[in-house]
Design a protein that fits this description.
Layout (H helix, E strand, L loop, with lengths): L1 E3 L2 E3 L2 H21 L9 H12 L9 E2 H11 L5 H10 L11 E4 L17 E4 L4 H4 L9 E3 L6 E3 L8 H5 L1 E4 L4 E4 L4 H13 L5 H5 L12 E3 L2 H9 L1 E7 L1 E5 L5 E6 L6 H14 L5 E6 L8 E5 L5 H11 L3 E7 L1 E4 L2 E4 L2 H42 L1 H9 L4 H12 L3 H9 L7 H26 L1 H19 L6 E3 L15 E7 L3 E6 L24 E8 L3 E6 L3 E6 L13 E2 H4 L9 E7 L7 E6 L3 E6 L11 E2 L8 E7 L4 E6 L3 E6 L13 E2 L9 E6 L4 E5 L5 E5 L13 E2 L9
Parallel strand pairs: 10-19
Antiparallel strand pairs: 1-2, 3-5, 4-5, 6-7, 8-9, 10-11, 11-16, 12-13, 13-15, 14-15, 17-18, 20-21, 20-22, 21-25, 23-24, 23-26, 24-29, 27-28, 27-30, 28-33, 31-32, 31-34, 32-37, 35-36
Helix pairs in contact: 2-3, 3-4, 7-12, 7-17, 12-15, 12-16, 12-17, 13-14, 14-15, 16-17
């Protein structure tokens, strides 16, 4: 920068930097961040002060919000009227502030995100607790500064008899920094402040035994204490907040939400749930109703009979704002600078503020009391010599001469002499004389009290405790937000009892799972039990055992594989038809149907999948290639003009047994099939005659082979009765296929 005459030359970079820093500091100090002492931003402070100047106290009539906005704009806050009204509205919303500072009459918005009515329709006045913010402001308790045009004075901070920053919290975005302080319970915070006064060395752990955590106006449930502890120790932390829900109904098929997380829009939450149901990400919700009324919030979610309510609830927590993460950042203005504060530092800052306020108030009252005592001493002198005083005044020709003669005759100060001259005649009665004497004694006692209060800091701290206890008794209420122990990352499996089930699929594509204990062991030739109701011309095509916690791979005739959790397959009784597979696997192609399934127990990822086609081709692929299966499935085998027949799990050292429709069987070592990729077609496993096709594939376990035919005939043969061949052979006869057997 250099001067040329009276012209100052600056580079554009330096000028932009200077202007931006000025703007940033203005936003930080004068708009976005609260003062640690009263917990208010400038706009809120100016609104409350303007309302107190208008006399809008809790026991006075309401006034139009527009009058308050106009008063604030015209005298203290020259910004947009809508910005001022929005700040006024927020202080009146019982779902935004834990203890609202404004008592509103009219429409001030709702948790559904409804906008408040225009300022010309709503009316306001200070709430009872807000008056504690203003109290004693006229007793020289705070510093004052000029307003924007220098014609009026406004307070730099409010006296604030209660810790508003902790109790009501604050949020705001400045330049390069932001604040997000949660609200707390008044009783807990006051008890915490008293604990710090009694024991200045108390640590965060000790404070947390008193101040449990945030207490949101909308209630809800905080999961875990680790985030709270971190925020209270460092000023930063993340907490998980859930809505309060219950499962109702005799059949436990109704989820009821009675509280939602803080700052969550109820209408948006309902829309989120509806969209998830519509897209199929949450399956099992049949109805969604908002039954909220004046008595409170109530959202009812009706569930289908075959779903587990805990699963749906867990999905709601995962995918909607029924569970949110609240980021705590305790940033406030301290001694003119933004600072991140721990819980104890916030409490200590409030205590320092109250010590200063009470000290200044006591000095002010002491000064006033001493001035009054001086006047009362003059009154008593005058009353003791009343006849002479009256005579002296009567003989004076002017007020000034009377004042001077009184001062000279009775050794009075000018203030005392003036007060005697201003004294009304009614003060000469006996009753009035007695009241003056009583006031004199009371004033002397008040002076002694105030001097004692100012003598030691511990006396002021005791005064703060006394005030806080009174506020606690007057305004304290019970905690709304419940805090529960950390559950960790809750998996759906944790909500499902682990049990063995039978999974059955029909030729037409219906699927269900059933508990094993629905069936009893029968002897050979038994009629059996009805395992599944089917549509006409439909029949059971597949059944296998699994655990409810297992992953189930479903393979289709087109050589694709899909993955489901076993518990996602709907449970049904013996007579139920089940659910169409296409509803569980909506990305299946036209004409695609499930032909076989494999259960992966205990999260199994080692080993191989052996796949065989109807034309006798076979291949072996590592199971790890099927670890990440998309919702639209994966190609498991290249079929070309073939169809998938069967799939089995193997260890890599098993023996493979293949059987055809015409009763031929082929038995060989698995090692004869080299491992291949998912997209490979495979090699010839069994050479088939014309009109024959592969129908079954298995690994040899034990010493016997069970062979069954379509007409219900079967036999058990020893494995030693079969000649072991090599891959690609025609095999040997395993059973006769004729009109009798099928």
């Amino acid at each position: 920068m250099k001067r040329i005459g009276e012209v100052v030359v600056r580079t554009i970079e330096s000028e932009m930097k200077r202007c931006f820093i000025d703007y940033s500091m203005s936003v930080i100090m004068s708009r976005a961040l609260p003062d640690v002492r009263d917990g208010l931003k400038p706009v809120h402070r100016r609104i409350l002060y303007a309302m107190s100047e208008m006399g809008l106290y809790h026991d006075k009539p309401f006034k139009k919000s527009a009058r308050v906005v106009g008063e604030t704009l015209g005298k203290y806050h020259p910004h947009g009227d809508q910005a001022v009204y929005d700040a006024l509205v927020r202080m009146a919303q019982d779902f935004s502030l834990r203890y609202p500072l404004v008592d509103g009459q009219g429409n001030f918005g709702s948790v559904d995100g409804d906008a408040p009515a225009a300022m010309r329709y709503t009316e306001v006045r200070l709430s009872e607790i807000a008056e504690l913010m203003i109290e004693d402001i006229d007793k020289d308790t705070v510093d004052w500064r000029d307003n924007f045009d220098g014609t009026l004075k406004e307070p730099e901070v409010l006296p604030s008899r209660f810790p508003n920053l902790l109790v009501n919290g604050s949020s705001g975005i400045a330049v390069g920094m932001a604040t997000n302080i949660p609200p707390h319970n008044l009783k807990e915070v006051i008890d915490g402040i008293i604990a710090v006064i009694d024991d200045p060395k108390i640590d965060t752990e000790g404070l947390m035994r008193i101040i449990k955590g945030p207490d949101f106006p909308t209630g809800g449930v905080i999961c875990g204490r680790s985030g709270i502890r971190q925020a209270y120790e460092t000023g930063r932390g993340l907490i998980r907040v859930r809505g309060r829900v219950s499962i109702e109904g005799e059949d436990r098929k109704r989820i009821v939400i009675t509280e939602i997380p803080y700052q969550v829009n109820k209408s948006d939450l309902l829309k989120q749930i509806a969209d998830l149901v519509k897209s199929g990400r949450i399956d099992g919700i049949t109805d969604l109703r908002d039954e909220s009324d004046k008595s409170g919030l109530r959202v009812v979610i009706e569930l289908r009979k075959d779903v587990v309510p805990d699963i749906i609830l867990n999905q709601l927590f995962q995918h909607t704002q029924l569970q949110v993460t609240f980021g705590i950042l305790n940033l406030a203005i301290v001694d003119g600078e933004p600072k991140i504060l721990s819980l104890k530092e916030m409490i200590q800052a409030f205590i320092r503020h109250r010590v200063e306020v009470i000290t200044r108030k006591a000095r002010y009252l002491l000064r006033k009391a001493e001035e009054r005592l001086h006047v009362l001493e003059g009154f008593l002198i005058a009353l003791d010599n009343i006849d002479e005083v009256i005579d002296l005044i009567k003989r004076s020709d002017k007020v000034d001469s009377a004042k001077m003669r009184l001062m000279k005759r009775f050794s009075l100060s000018e203030v005392q002499a003036k007060a005697i001259l201003d004294m009304r005649l009614q003060r000469l009665t006996g009753m009035e004389r007695k009241s003056i004497e009583e006031e004199y004694e009371a004033t002397k006692k008040e002076i002694d009290r105030l001097k004692g209060l100012l003598a030691e800091r511990k006396n002021i701290l005791q005064e703060i405790k006394k005030e806080l206890i009174q506020i606690r008794e007057r305004f304290g209420d019970e905690r709304r937000t419940e805090i529960v122990e950390e559950e960790g990352e809750l998996r759906i499996e944790d909500l499902i009892p682990e049990e063995d089930v039978l999974v059955v699929i029909t030729h037409e594509g219906y699927i269900k799972r059933m508990p094993i204990d629905l069936y009893r062991i029968q002897r050979r030739g038994g009629v059996g039990l009805l395992g599944m109701e089917t549509k006409e011309e439909d029949f059971l095509s597949l059944s296998f055992m699994a655990s409810t916690h297992d992953d189930v791979l479903l393979f289709t005739n087109q050589g694709r594989v899909y993955r489901l959790k076993c518990y996602e397959i709907p449970e049904g009784g013996r007579r139920s038809k089940g659910k169409a597979v296409v509803n569980l696997l909506p990305k299946m192609n036209k004409g695609e149907r499930v032909v076989t399934g494999v259960s992966l127990g205990d999260g199994r990822s080692k080993g191989y999948l052996v796949l065989a086609t109807k034309k006798g081709f076979i291949k072996r692929t590592k199971l790890e290639h099927f670890k990440n299966i998309r919702s639209n499935g994966l190609i498991a085998i290249d079929l070309r003009d073939d169809e998938l027949a069967d799939v089995v799990l193997s260890s890599g050292d098993d023996e493979i047994f293949m059987a055809s429709k015409n009763g031929k069987a082929c038995w060989f070592d698995e090692r004869e099939i080299r491992p291949m990729g998912r997209n490979a077609r495979g090699v010839v496993g069994m050479r088939l005659e014309d009109g024959d096709e592969l129908v079954s594939l298995d690994v040899v376990k034990g010493d016997d082979i069970l062979t069954l035919t379509e007409n219900g005939f079967g036999k058990r043969s020893g494995i030693g009765d079969y000649r072991k061949t090599r891959r690609g052979s025609k095999g040997v006869k395993t059973i006769l296929t004729n009109d009798r057997n099928g």
